[in-house]
Amino acid sequence: MREFMVSYEKKGMxxxxxxxxxxxxxxxxxxxxxxxxxxxxxxxxxxxxx
Length: 50
Known about the structure:
The chain is mainly α. Helices cover about 80% and strands about 0% of the residues.
């Protein structure tokens, strides 16, 4: 049961990072800064930008 919960926690954290990165993109922050602050790769941030 604990493994199942960890999976949901991880998915929730990833969703939060993505949402934060999207808001940062709306404010025209640069990709490298977004990547550094969220922990997402630059490729992931670029995908969100499209």
